[in-house]
Request: fold
Amino acid sequence: MATANYLRSEDQFLCSICLDVFTDPVSTSCGHNFCKACITEHWDRNHQYLCPMCKKVFTTRPELQVNTLLSEMVGQFRASAQQEASSSSEQQAAEPGEVPCDVCTGTKLKALKSCLDCLVSYCETHLEPHLTASRLKRHQLIDPVENLEGRMCVKHDKPLELFCKTDQTCVCLLCPILDHKTHEFVPLREEYEEQKAELGKTEAELQQMIQKRRLKIQEIEQSVDLGKEDADREKAEGVEVFTSLKESVEKGLNEFINTIEEKQKTTEKQAEDFIKELEEEISDLKKRRTEVEHLSQSEDQIHLLQSVQSLKAAPATRDWTEVSVCPPSYEGTVVKALAQLEETLSEEIKKLLDEALNKEMKMMFEAELKRVQQFAVDVTLDPDTAHADLVLSSDGKKVNDSDFKKFVMDNPKRFSDCPCALGKQSFSSGKFYFEVQVKGKTKWTIGVVRESINRREEIPLSPRNGCWTIWLRNFNEYKGLDNPLVDLSPRSRPQKVGVFVDYEKGLVSFHDVDTAALIYSFTGSCFNEKLYPFLNPCLNDRGKNITPLKICPVNQTE
Reply:
């Protein structure tokens, strides 16, 4: 029973010096066991004779006694281990396409590893010495491969151990002496690691190229969708116009629709061609990425080095950076068709032209508002600048008049006469945009002012005095506070006003956010100081103007 228990544990048969199964086990007088060669070499290299296990020091070199019982048990353990390995491999005969063991006689078992030092492939049973013997443990094992002779130099019949960077080929140790005397050489492992790293970069670049093409497909598809929406909208309008003219303009209607559809078909055909070409490139790149990924994971140095050059070459793909599909312009299509009927249908054409102009203006205003909203900034009011009559919300987003003057610390930044406040944020370059809700108010003044504005006296608000503002008075009296004042006539009463500044261009513009209409613009100004957002909620007017001005988050128009 004791022997059986020992056979179940390999740890009982390991030498504490070489950490391998005992070979010729001997015992010291202190009762510890070692391989004979291990303990002998240990004492040869040290001045003291001490036990590696218990550190007991011997005055003279002890005589080593062979441990007969342990030797027999180690022999039994080795036999049992080989028998277990053999039985576990009985059913693993090499199948067609699998690498067979080079050592097996009779039925060739499936190789588990190939040794690059021995140039032999081993099944699990015959691999055991490489896993237990100290000398063989230093051999390089890889996943089984065929044609190990390809790891030998065909000229000198020596293992391929170096890489010639000059000729980009694997060579043996004799090649630098006999055939490549002036060439540059590095160890195979060094070149393998370098090329493997390069393959990783190549794989990443291929993935990036694939992603760029996928994004380009999305861009093209979006362009097609936008073009289709424009085409559908234009067709609907054209159908409505020409249908109203009945049979007299039926021919013109057909020509109108055909023109638009032809443009759209041309655009879609172009897009389809681009997408097809992109998908073909993606397919090729995916295949190439798979090959690179498989090669980069290979432990076969020779195969990697012999194959890497073809995969590192730049793939034959188009540069898609400047490629795009622009939706066709339908501007003037309806106008041109109606002009052909001008002699008989002049009144109808004029009506349609006016409608088209209004629509064009609306689209232009919406596009401009969407553009400036991209420069939105987060503005909060500075309580140190607020007039003593004003009440600011805790988040600095709302301000209104309180009808009474509060006690506040004197501050050179504070306005003394004008009931207004400035934003904390200042701007001395670039573009910025913010929105103020004015709904429910009968009076207000909004805009931007320069840092040096007079804060102690009430001055005329004008660019000459460093103010670029508009106001509402008497419920419906809008003015641009320019030199001179400019009467404004917005088509509808603004509920939310957007303020946009282009510092370098000297532009300050005001927009009705709900309708996207331009209210007023100051142009040609020369800014040379910091600019601050300016809000004046005006007096409460006995409760008629109690609603606060509110700085709102910008939600870009669709």
